[in-house]
Every structure is written in C-alpha cells, then in structure tokens.
Amino acid sequence: MTYPQFEAVKVAMKQDKTGYMLTLSIHPEEVPELIVRDFVGSRYQVVMVRLNGEEKPMNRDHEHSNDNVRAAALLCRNPKFWHFLCETGQIFEANETLATEWLRQELDISSRAELKENQEAVRRLKFIMKELYEWMQVNG
Question: What is the SS3 assignment for 123?
Fold first, then answer.
C-alpha cells in the first residue's frame, strides 16, 4: 500500500475539550485523492517533519543544543554562580573569568560550543545548575 505524502503549512491551531485542532493549508495540486475521498472523522497516523530554508528536514536536536550553550554562558555571567563557587571552595575570587574557566574544566570542554554535541558535558552542566538552584534556595 502506498501512503499519501504532501507538503503543508500550519495556518491555525486551537484547543477545545476534546484536544487540539491543527489546521494545515495544502496546495490544491498536492491534496491526496485518498484523503479527499475519506469521510469526515477518519483517523490517520501522522508523521510530520518541519522543513528548513533549504527544503530539508530541520534538525530539532541542533536547535535545542544552542540552549545549553546559552545556559552555560548565562551561568558564567551570574554573580550568584560566582558566589556559589566561592562558598563551595571551587574558586577563590568571585568573577566571570574564574567561573568560566572552572566550568570548562569541570565539564571537560575547551569551548562552550562543545555543549552542542557532548551529551556527557550537558548532563554535568544540568547537575551543576541543579546544585546551584538548591544552594540558592538556602542562601538566596
């Protein structure tokens, strides 16, 4: 059996008590005849892949990997993180440079950009952020 394939554009989304309703716009030449003939209420298994500007599947993992890079950068700029490191004996002077050096060493990376691919470093970063959060709950 062949399965219909077509390109569509998301034009609306709403919610009611039964769930979400996604409205897609399909070019008239791409509407699969099988779907047109099916009755309203037909159920489908749907697989959707978002396309990037080059008409290729978008890599969502890469998109979210930048979040870890940003999180590490913001962490190193945060004076509370500096004080956390000082109080726990990780660094001896509260500043961004020492915090950044400590974090790179602790994550075993030479650049924060490595957080896009290095899942072990991401795991350790999340653990450090959890420890900081717990420390902030007690120390403000």
Answer: helix
Residues 120 and 64 in one domain: yes
E-assigned strand segments in the chain: 8-16, 19-26
- Give the C-alpha separation, 127 to 133, whole Å: 10
Q: What is the extent of the structural domain holding 69?
A: 60-139
DSSP state of 50: -
Band of the pLDDT at 49, cuts 50, 70, 90? confident
How many independent structural domains does the chain possess?
2
Closest CA to 122 of 85, 71, 62: 71
Verify that 89 and 41 share a domain, yes or no: no
Percent composition of the chain: helix, strand, coil (DSSP 3-state, to 5) = 50, 15, 35
- pLDDT confidence of residue 3: 81
25 and 79 fall within a common domain: no
Tens-digit pLDDT profile for residues 66-118: 788 989 999 999 999 999 999 999 999 999 999 999 999 999 999 988 998 89
